[in-house]
Specification:
With 182 residues, the protein is α/β, with parallel strands linked by helices. The chain has helices spanning 38-47, 49-62, 98-115, 135-149, 165-181; strands at 2-5, 8-14, 24-29, 70-74, 82-87, 120-123, 157-162. The chain has a single domain, classed as 3-Layer(aba) Sandwich (Leucine Aminopeptidase, subunit E, domain 1). It is built from five helices and seven strands; from the N terminus they run βββααββαβαβα. It binds adenosine-5-diphosphoribose (APR).
């Protein structure tokens, strides 16, 4: 599914984040930046050791990455030139600032992309795997945060890459509702 928000093309598709040819892809990392499972594992496997090397240098310089923040490394051998690593919140029932932290993670990635002049960026569904954030709630936060950010900024393309058919359909429902309201 494709829809415009201002000057920005939003593309929602089912696929593997590591195969995207956008200028940057987002990694759903953890604060250690030392890799893990899910998206994180897939990105480090596909991108090679250079990504981890840069992550180690970042942690040596500035310490662990707080939840909601983002940093940039090379894309190593990925098609994407850069990886933006962010840390989403672990779901703990919803009363511990999870919604705002998830929004902050999306905003931090977008702000870093602007800072580096990145014109196209792919997002996974941050926090909805190992971190167990409820999927529909997360999809709405992703949508609202991105649409708000696009009031003052534009990209050539923002992609949401969903791993499963169910997640794709959920995202399509959430974004179609928005299109019908605007
Ligand atoms: N491409 C796109 N989406 C993927 C891929 C992939 N290759 N692999 C998994 N996903 C999906 C999952 O189905 C889930 O919906 O990405 C979403 C996020 O899941 P996780 O990767 O588990 O990320 P998160 O919930 O943010 O948990 C982060 O998991 O692996 C660790 O180091 C990581 O500790 C951190 C935690």
């Amino acid at each position: 599914m494709q829809l415009p928000v201002g000057q920005t093309k939003i593309l929602i598709l089912q696929g593997d984040i590591t195969e995207q040819d956008t200028e940057a892809i987002v990694n759903a990392a953890n604060s250690s930046l030392m890799g893990g499972g899910g998206v994180d594992g897939a990105i480090h496997r596909a991108g090679g050791p250079q990504i981890l090397e840069e992550c180690k240098q970042i942690v040596a310089r500035q310490g662990r990455l707080p939840t909601g923040e983002a940093v940039l490394t090379t894309g190593g051998s990925l098609k994407a030139r850069y990886v933006i690593h962010t840390v989403g919140p672990i779901w703990r029932g919803g009363k511990n600032g999870e919604d705002e932290l998830l929004a902050k993670a999306y905003r931090s990635c977008l702000a870093l992309a602007v800072k580096y002049g990145i014109k196209s960026l792919s997002f996974p569904s941050i926090s909805t795997g190992a971190y167990r954030f409820p999927k529909e709630r997360a999809a709405k936060i992703a949508r609202t945060t991105v649409v708000d950010f696009l009031i003052d900024h534009s990209f050539e393309e923002l992609r949401f890459v969903l791993f499963s058919r169910n997640d794709l359909e959920l995202y399509e429902r959430v974004w179609v509702k928005l299109a019908n309201c605007s």
